[in-house]
Amino acid sequence: MDLVIVMTTLFVGLPWIILHYITRWKTAATITADDEVLLEELYQLAKRLDERMDTVERLVASENPDFQPARLSHDREIDNQQLRELENLLAEKKGSSK
Known about the structure:
The chain is mostly helical. It has helices at about 1-30, 35-65, 75-95.
């Protein structure tokens, strides 16, 4: 009887525990669909805030010619390159998920 319990533990219980925690570890390391939606919303919010800052800086610069913005210049291609790359990746991801 003791031999049956030991064999069951070794050949059923131990692999089950190991595979269970490997599966849990792999699923915890991935981004869920909810996470992707949240990231998309945050990206859109950041983009809108960036556009608002550009507008505020243009208004202040039009009223005060000595104003020097501390931020990056408005809509310079080199500044927006990373944003465009991110937008392309998001568009590709949406295209492949449909």
